[in-house]
Specification:
Blueprint lengths: L7 H10 L12 E2 L17 E13 L4 E12 L3 E7 L3 E7 L2 E2 L1 E5 L2 E5 L9 E10 L13 E2 L4 E3 L20 E10 L3 E3 L3 E8 L2 E12 L6 E4 L1 E7 L5 E7 L6 H8 L2 H12 L7 E5 L7 E2 L6 E2 L10 H9 L7 E3 L5 H18 L5 H11 L22 H18 L1 H14 L3 E3 L1 H12 L4 H9 L26 H9 L7
Parallel strand pairs: 1-4, 2-12, 18-19, 22-23
Antiparallel strand pairs: 2-3, 3-9, 4-8, 5-6, 5-9, 7-8, 10-11, 11-16, 12-15, 13-16, 14-15, 17-18, 20-21
Helix pairs in contact: 3-4, 4-5, 5-7, 6-7, 7-8, 7-10, 8-9
Length: 500
Amino acid sequence: MIRRQGLRAVIAACCASAVFAAPALAGAEGPGAPGAGDDYFPGYGNGGYDVSHYDLQLRYQPADDHLQGTATIVANATQDLTAFNLDFALTAKSVRVNGMPAQFSQNGLELTVTPSATLPQGEMATFVVEYEGTPSAADVGPVNPWVRTSDGALAVGQPEISAWWFPGNDHPRDKATYDVAISVPDGTEAISNGVNTRNSSLAGWTTWNWRNTEPTATYLAFMAIGQYEISSKTGAFGQPFVTAYSDKLGPLAGPAKASVERTPEVLDFLSQLFGEYPFSAQGGVVPSEGLGFALENQTRPTYSHLFFQRAANVSVVVHENAHQWFGDSVSVDTWRNIWVNEGFASYAEWLWSEAHGTGTTQELFDHYYNSYPADDPFWQVPPGDPGAEDVFHTAVYDRGAMALHALRTAVGDEAMLDITRTWVAEHRNSTGTVEQFIELAEQKSGKQLDELFNAWLFTKGKPAVSPATGVAASAARENVPEPAAVAEIDRAHELLHDHG
C-alpha cells in the first residue's frame, strides 16, 4: 500500500485506548474475546468464531450518504459461544443468529451479540444483521476512514474500513469470501472485488452484484460508488480484467489509463517472480477526489488521481499488484509484520526497473542507502517491529526494500527466488510472520542470517557495509548516480509522506 501520513497520531491513540482481551480457550463456554489479540491493535477483530462468507445486500443514496444493509455472515464457532462481538460503526436495527432474534448492544466499534442459545464449538452458524446509517457521520473514535465524494463514496482504507459499511471480524487472520450487491440510483456505478456477476434495474435503482471467491481480509474488501467509466475485458491468464475511471478525471484520465491498463502486463511479470497469480480476477479503480493514497484491494487496487498528476506512473501499479501476493494472499498475522507486505511491494518496483532498463536493483539500493545519512531519523524505525504509530513509516517501505536486496545479495538469486516462491505457496490464503520468513530464508539458503536480519529489521541505525549485512562496498560511494527509475518510484511513494 502507498499511503499518506495523517493517520499516524490517531493510530497510536487507538492502540493506546484499546483494551487487550485474550481469546477464550477453545472448548470453554463463554463469550468470545472483543479483540483478536493483535499486539499493535488489540481491539481489532474478535474471538470465538471464524467467518467463511459474507453476503452483503446494500442500498446507498449518494445525495445524503445514507446506507442501508443486510449482512448475512456464515461462521463457525471456535468455542462454545455464549456471546460474540462484531466490529461495526453504523446502527444495527436487528440481529438474528441461526434464524432466531438475538439480544445486542453497541459501544464504539463493538457490536455485542447474545444469541438465544449457546453456539456449540465447531458448528456452523449464521448471523444476520440489518442496519443503516450515515457512514461519514459515524462518530465512534478518532478515525473515520469512509470517504464521501461529490457523486458517491469510497469504502477504501487500511488498517480499518469494513466497520463503516458492514459488520464483521475485522482482522486479517479471519479471511472470508464475499457476495456484495450494491443498489444505487440509476446512472450511478458501484464497483467491488472479484467478478461482476449481474446488474439489474428496478424502480429507479440499479443493483450491481459482485462475487469474490478467494479468502479476503476485511480491510481488502472495498466499495467505490459514483460516476465511473467501467471497462471489462480479458486480462492476464485469461481472467476478467475490470477497470473503473472516474468521469471527472479530466486531463488525468489519459495518464491514469496509461498506467492502470498495463496491469495484465505487470501481473504477468510478477507471476514469473512470485509464482502463480493467486486470484481469479484483476483490475483497478481511479476516483477523482477524496483519496490521497493507493490501496491493494484484493483483485482491484484503488489509486488516488494524485499519482498521475505529473505523468503516467507504472511503479504504483507494480507496487499495489505485488501486494496481491504479499499482503492479500499472504496477509499479516498481526500488524507488526507489515514489513513483509511493504518490503516486497517496494522491492517489486526495483525489480520492474531492472527488467526495463531504468536502473538495476543494486543501483537503486545504492541510491536509497546514500539518500539517508546515518543520523537521519529514517534509520531509527526498525521495519521488523516499527511500532503501532509507525506502521506506515517510510522506513517500512524503503528500508524494507533495501533489506530484501541485502538478503538477495547475501544468499544469491537462485536461493532468493526459492525463498520468495516457497513463501507465497506455503502461506497462500493465510497469514505469515517476520519470524517465519526469517526461518524460511535460513532454511532455503543454508545460511545463518541473524546479523543481516537484526541489522536491517530490528536494530535502530544505518546497517554497516559488510558481507554479513548484505551491503556491498558500492553503496558507500559518494555522489552515487541517480537511476532513471527513481523519479517515478519517488512519485509513487511521495504520498506515503502525507498519510500513515
